[in-house]
Design goal:
Distance between the termini: 17 Å
Structural class: alpha/beta
Number of domains: 2
CATH class of the largest domain: Alpha Beta
CATH superfamily of the largest domain: Uncharacterised protein PF12979, DUF3863
Shape: globular
Strand content: 15-25%
Length: 444
């Protein structure tokens, strides 16, 4: 039975992006996220029947050095967690940002315009990694999807063997915070591991055999067709991988039928060019997550689970607050014509308050592709996960999450939903969670 390797990249960094340079705050997110993945490991091992290894990418750069007194502060402060990671056989790599403090503006600025500064950051990171962990850095991830040819050559010369920065399908972009320089168009980066060309790291090299592998993160289309369901049908994925003789793929349900006797509440908050969002709750069964059918008129478009945390729902005594849903609006609804969007409890006659909403839009918002970030919109991530596995040419999956995920209840609930979806997937027994090096040895 062929296995599909899954690489989970965990970026270990401060809880805030633009940290206060005068305050050495603990990285509480790392502590909580480490505990989450420690408890997840045996669940994944039981489901897959294989050892599970994650990949941790530690921030070590001038922003960390100037704020915490040492770029390798995380290793000193969280030595016991790092030792646990090593004992588990996980991968440890380097995560890098090019933040530079601007005294005149009293703010951090990502300086991509100065290759000298980028080189200084990278060299500091590799030196700190080697000294603090007593090993060579083989795994690397630059922050914010930024990379160029010079930096690829540099990390290779410094000993990196696997780079996991690239996010295929992303066009020229930037970041919300102040930055200098530019971002390259990565829309044509292959969705498979490759040895980079010496002239353009975004393309596989034809004649040069380099020591570095580019391992792009997994991405999927942001858009979805009218016939899409919140989960792939079994026949769409069953032909992807070989199965042992006599094994059965469990059916994946579509819409869940909730009893008509429930005391349902709910509200359709929005249906616009970005999202169709709201909440649903059964006050007789407050612990139950409600599935809702999203309709255009009377036609069901998809089903979503109202399971994401919202502080206002918790404050309103709606159970634990994990009762909201959000589905990105598909492009085919943005044709300038009016569409009546309504949402009801799945398999039930209860329509959410404020249904229907008339959606009329020409505007397209958002990137055409979404990277598999485990804390992003869980409806989209589960759909993309199913779509990728349904491709018979799928060699691997590379997913990412930031270590602050566990300090934000909404992000944690997205992570929980996506992980639970993976655990319950009919092909979970054919997945194996590995480090980048283990994955390359399997698929090359």
């Amino acid at each position: 039975m062929r296995k599909i390797p899954v690489v989970i990249c965990i970026d270990v960094e401060p809880d805030e992006r633009l940290i206060d340079p005068g305050v050495r705050s603990d990285w509480s997110g790392f502590q909580l996220t480490h505990e989450f993945f420690r408890k997840l490991r045996p669940r994944l091992e039981a489901a897959t029947g294989s050892p599970v290894h994650f990949s941790w990418f530690l921030r070590m750069d001038p922003q960390i050095a100037s704020t915490y007194g040492s770029s390798s502060w995380v290793v000193t402060r969280y030595g016991s967690l790092i030792e646990n990671i090593k004992r588990a056989g996980d991968g440890i790599g380097l995560h890098m940002h090019a933040w530079r403090w601007d005294d005149s503006l009293n703010e951090w600025r990502a300086d991509f315009a100065s290759q000298d500064w980028v080189e200084f950051c990278v060299r500091m990171g590799f030196e700190s990694f080697s000294k603090s962990l007593d090993e060579r850095c083989s795994y690397f991830r630059f922050g914010d999807r930024w990379m160029n040819n010079e930096t690829v050559r540099l990390i290779e010369n410094l000993g990196a063997r696997f780079d996991l920065t690239m996010e295929p399908g992303q066009t020229v972009a930037g970041i919300d915070e102040p930055f200098s320089g530019s971002f390259l168009d990565c829309s044509q980066v292959p969705q498979r591991p490759y040895r980079p060309s010496i002239t353009d790291f975004r393309r596989p090299g034809k004649y040069l055999r380099r020591g570095l592998w580019i391992i792009p993160l997994s991405v999927g289309p942001a858009d979805w067709p009218a016939s899409s369901a919140s989960q792939a049908k079994p026949e769409a994925v069953s032909g992807n991988l070989s199965r042992e003789a006599g094994s059965e793929l469990p059916a994946i349900p579509g819409s869940v039928h909730h009893p008509s006797t429930g005391s349902f509440e709910g509200y359709l908050d929005r249906a616009d060019c970005e999202f169709i969002s709201g909440w649903a709750y059964d006050k007789d069964r407050p612990e139950t997550r409600i599935d809702v059918d999203i309709l255009e008129g009377d036609r069901r478009l998809t089903t979503a689970t109202a399971a994401t945390f919202r502080q206002d729902l918790l404050a309103a005594a709606k159970g634990d607050g994990r009762h909201s849903f959000s589905v990105p609006t598909p492009s085919w609804l943005k044709d300038g014509k009016p569409h009546l969007i309504q949402v009801k409890v799945a398999g039930n006659g209860f329509y959410l308050n404020n249904s229907p909403i008339e959606l009329c839009s020409f505007e397209t918002i958002g990137p055409p592709h979404l990277t598999m970030n485990l804390s992003d919109n869980s409806w989209s991530m589960c759909r993309i996960f199913d779509t990728l596995l349904s491709n018979p040419d799928c060699l691997y999956l590379a997913l990412v999450v930031r270590s602050d995920v566990s300090i934000y209840s909404d992000l944690q609930s997205h992570l929980d939903q996506t992980i639970n979806h993976i655990l319950s997937h009919p092909l979970i027994g054919q997945l194996v969670f590995e480090t980048p090096g283990q994955m390359i040895r399997r698929v090359r």
